[in-house]
Design a protein that fits this description.
- It is a single chain.
- This protein is 14% helix and 36% strand.
- By secondary structure, the chain is an alpha+beta fold.
- It folds into 4 domains: 83 residues, Phosphorylase Kinase, domain 1 (2-Layer Sandwich), CATH 3.30.200; 237 residues, Transferase(Phosphotransferase) domain 1 (Transferase(Phosphotransferase), domain 1), CATH 1.10.510; 281 residues, Neuraminidase, CATH 2.120.10.30; 271 residues, Neuraminidase.
């Protein structure tokens, strides 16, 4: 019940109610002791028994108490009286920004003045490590003297989302949803100002505040919300896939400000301005920046694809240099002695970096860079003293993970062709086999040893560069996955990453450990990161999400001596499968040069097209826009296509009418949704992390009903659907636990392991449902295609002999197709399934698709058996994403910057 005027709470006399929200009621009150007017925020009585809400209420007090800024409303105390907890806050006498906007657009000069003060408030908070998470006009107050006060910092409200279209719904303080929570009341923000990452249930960071800042600035200038809808769901959909009406920005808004707004509203936070200081600088110096543009003109709306990749910092050609200088001034300290230099190595037009893990390395002396590019993937060597890179003869073996020898005279790499680690002289020649291996989770040549993390269950191994049998020097425990090993102290100490559980995010929860070679005891040196590397400057650098961080590190005691400092943001990472370490595309030399690739975590995120291919190899492109497509699946009637896009940040399932005429329709929202397959009654079954685990969901393909959970995964596993039986009664799915993948069935609500004695995946039923083709390493190190009767009562047949993956049956059951490991294009095998199984010789098919590695099968067969759906590279000349895969960023004398940025005591 609202408190009446004149009611006393301790020393405070209630004057009037100011408002109410999901986490508190706000009143104007008189401090009878100090004789001043204050605002009281009272925790509702219904929440006092909820420990989570009480904790959030107190956390708000602690957050506000840590801030002291003229544009942030202050807190005077956290008190309790008559069993009621309340905050005593500064009373801001004025109107809220949303009420001011309701009267129409704000004149440009006034709007920019308000925005500058908001940016200053956010900058002060961000420097304290505080993220607002719910910036919106309703949380900005305009005082009578023209000053700005930002309210509700760190507020955690638990308002329920409504389906109505009222302004209250759009201004609701926060939205929570069970589909987006890993705990009670996870804060996402307000729908119209919520960043795309918050809308997907991901953690907010300061770039999420920058998105909201862009929304507020756009709304002040235009009088309309940047993203709006009839209800909360429509608004979130606009945030995730819509674009603001850029033509609504007044013509007298300068180029720097216009491009700043566009940059703040980039959906991929990796390419938004990384610090609100950029916005504050632009708003402070907009006149000077505008004067640099001659002649003055109004910037037309910039296409989103161009903004995303050509203008990553506050976008706009005219502003790029200015913003670059801002970032340099803001983040690069003065470095005595050698100058720090940044530049990019552009690849030739015909080259594109491979979409797989560990694609580049730098020589120990910093004079050469080696990288993996093109298809089939081979290595190229670029000298810093030359203008062009040269292919290394003898490495056209479908390779990954290049690494230099300590003397820089050899380059090691992994070959998919025969499943081995190899080395080759930098001058080229014959590649020398070192040892058999699965694709490594990181490999390094340290001193007299090469160390690598095994993709299987062995752990970290070392082998002589001269070859021999690898020796296990660190063994995995159940549920663990290792990565990024390095040897130190003359090969006596091993540094590596240990992750447990499933999913990409487990690497951000991983531990970086050190272990003495010959011992089984580990010392955890850092928690919450991966790919740790010791730098001779006295630092440990490691990856967290797409950021490289550094901490002071004592190499004698192996102790972290300070807090982490972000060093490089927006580093490209790769995750081709839940089994594999999401390797950062970054390396540094012994002399202090750094090389890296920019971008998000990707799973082969280059732009692609989709085509229908006939058996004679002719291809007809489908009317689908270029996107990072993977995993196409044709409906049983051949009328629709379920297909996934995955740029490493968003994983979305789309439905496309194969009869043409309609654009693809988005099916899934919330979380990462992958591996679609068609099931009974027109449903699409898929994997999703939308509810915190990595379970299975299904949804009607027409989108008329929300997705339903099919199966919840345990904390250590990820479930991926493989195939439904032809009668629609049994689902075969892959269970990924750490580095192990097995097959299980779901039938009648009961889950049963299909095989406990083998590691297998990519199962598919024959047309009669009697036989199962699958992929397994049970015959050796590489994957092969096997066929066995579904009931496992008869013989087992190994169909491939030189490596294979992604089997698909022809609809009539007379052929089995698969993707070979040693050459491009499909292989077809003639088979019989009745009365028993038999198979003939394999034959290459003139049908090509993109092979990106597990778990992506990038082709499917049409029900008539005459055509295939295949994914192909988009036209490189039209590929807006090509810049991500066509240049390498270089920083020389990076060690000097590291020492200045992260001092070692």
């Amino acid at each position: 019940m609202p408190l009446p005027s004149g009611f006393h709470l301790g020393l405070y006399e209630i004057a009037a109610a100011l408002g109410a929200g999901g986490m508190g009621e706000v009143y104007r009150a008189k401090d009878t002791k100090l004789g001043r007017d204050v605002a009281l925020k009272i925790l509702p009585a219904s929440f006092t028994s909820d420990p989570e809400r009480v904790a959030r209420f107190r956390r708000e007090a602690q957050v506000l108490a840590s801030l002291n800024h003229p544009h942030i409303a202050q807190i005077y105390g956290l008190e309790e009286a008559s069993g009621t907890q309340f905050l005593v806050l500064e009373l801001v006498d004025g109107e809220s920004l949303d009420k001011r906007i309701a009267r129409g657009p704000i004149p440009v000069d006034e709007a920019l003045g308000i925005a500058k003060q908001i940016a200053e408030a956010l900058e002060a908070a961000h420097e304290k490590g505080i993220i607002h998470r719910d910036l919106k006009p309703a949380n900005v107050a305009l005082t009578k003297d023209g000053s700005v006060k930002v309210l509700d910092f760190g507020l955690a409200k638990a308002a329920e989302a409504t389906s109505g279209a009222s302004a209250d719904a759009m201004n609701s303080p926060t939205i929570t949803s069970p589909a987006m929570m890993t705990g009670v009341g996870v804060i996402l923000g307000t729908a119209a100002y919520m960043s795309p990452e918050q809308a997907k249930g991901r953690a907010a960071d300061k770039r999420s505040d920058i998105w909201a800042f862009g929304c507020v600035l756009y709304e002040m200038l235009t009088g309309n919300r940047a993203f709006d809808g009839d209800d909360v769901s429509d608004t979130l959909a606009a945030v995730l896939r819509g674009e603001p009406d850029w033509t609504g920005i007044p013509a007298d808004v300068s180029l720097p400000v216009r491009t700043l707004v566009q940059g703040c509203l980039e959906k991929n936070r990796a390419v938004r301005p990384s610090d609100i200081a950029v916005a504050r600088f632009v708003l402070t110096h907009t006149t000077k920046l505008t004067d640099t543009i001659s002649p003055p003109h109004v910037l037309p709306p910039v296409p989103s694809a161009l903004r995303r990749y050509v203008m990553p910092m506050a976008v706009g050609v005219a502003l790029t240099a200015a913003v670059a200088s801002i970032a340099w001034w803001r983040f690069t300290p003065e470095v005595p002695g050698r100058a720090v230099t940044r530049f990019a190595i552009a690849l030739p037009e015909h080259q594109r970096l491979a979409s797989r893990s560990q694609v580049l390395a730098i020589s120990p002396d910093g004079s050469r860079v080696v990288y993996a590019a093109n298809a089939p993937v081979q290595l190229y060597l670029r000298s810093m003293a030359e203008m062009e890179a040269h292919p290394i003869s003898g490495t056209n073996l479908d390779v990954m993970s290049p690494f230099f020898s300590p003397d820089g005279q050899w380059i090691g790499f992994y070959s998919f062709q025969d499943g081995t680690l190899k080395k080759i002289a930098v001058s080229g020649g014959a590649a020398v086999t070192i040892c058999k291996s699965t694709p490594p989770h990181g490999v390094a040549w340290d001193g007299d040893w090469i160390v690598f993390a095994d993709e299987g269950e062995k752990g970290v191994l070392r082998v002589s560069p001269n070859g021999g049998e690898p020796e296990v020097i660190a063994s995995v425990k159940p549920g663990e996955t290792f990565g990024a090993p390095h040897l130190f102290d003359d090969g006596k100490l091993l540094l590596f990453t240990v992750a447990t559980g499933g999913g990409l995010e487990r690497w951000d929860r991983a531990q970086i450990v050190v272990q003495r070679v010959g011992s089984t005891e580990r010392l955890v040196v850092l928690r919450g990161g991966s790919e740790g590397r010791y730098v001779p400057t006295g630092h440990l650098v490691y990856m967290l999400a797409n950021t490289l961080l550094a901490v002071p590190f004592d190499s004698k005691t192996w102790q972290v001596r300070g807090g982490p400092v972000p060093i490089v943001e927006g580093v490209r990472r790769f995750d081709s499968t839940a089994n594999r370490l999401p390797d950062a595309s970054i390396a540094f030399s012994r002399t202090g040069s750094l090389v890296y690739l920019t971008g998000s975590a990707i799973t082969g995120g280059a732009q692609r097209t989709v085509a229908l291919a006939t058996r004679d190899g002719q291809q007809q492109p489908l009317n689908l826009p270029p996107r990072p497509y993977v995993h196409p699946r044709v409906s049983p009637d051949g009328k629709q296509l379920a297909i996934q896009t995955d740029d490493g940040n968003d994983a979305i399932i789309w439905i496309y009418d194969l009869r043409g005429g309609s654009p693809p329709r988005r099916l899934t929202f919330g979380g990462r949704n992958t591996s679609p397959i068609w099931g009974p009654e027109g449903r699409v079954t898929f994997h999703s992390d939308r509810e915190g685990d990595h379970g299975l969901f299904w949804q009607l393909a027409d989108g008329t009903k929300p997705a339903d959970r099919l199966l919840k995964a345990d904390a250590a596993s990820e479930y991926r659907p493989d195939a439904w039986s032809p009668d629609g009664k049994t689902l075969m799915f892959s269970v990924v636990r750490g580095s192990t993948t097995t097959l299980s069935t779901l039938s009648g609500g009961v889950v049963k392991p299909w095989a406990t004695d083998i590691r297998a995946t990519h199962a598919t039923f024959s047309s009669d449902g009697k036989w199962l083709a699958y992929v397994s390493t049970e015959a050796g190190n590489r994957t092969e295609i096997f066929v066995q009767d579904f009931q496992r009562t008869g013989a087992k047949y190994q169909v491939s002999t030189e490596g294979g993956t992604f089997p698909v049956w022809s609809p009539d059951g007379t052929q089995l197709f698969y993707w070979p490991l040693q050459r491009q294009g499909l292989v077809g095998v003639d088979v019989q399934t009745r009365p028993s199984f038999s198979y003939g010789k394999s034959a290459a098919q003139p049908i090509e698709a993109i092979f990106t590695g597990a778990p992506r099968r990038n082709y499917d067969i049409m029900p008539d058996g005459k055509q295939f759906v295949v994914i192909r590279p988009a036209d490189v000349s039209a590929d807006a994403n090509s810049s991500i895969n066509s240049q390498i960023s270089v920083v020389t004398n990076w060690f000097e910057e590291l020492k200045a940025r992260v001092p070692v005591k």
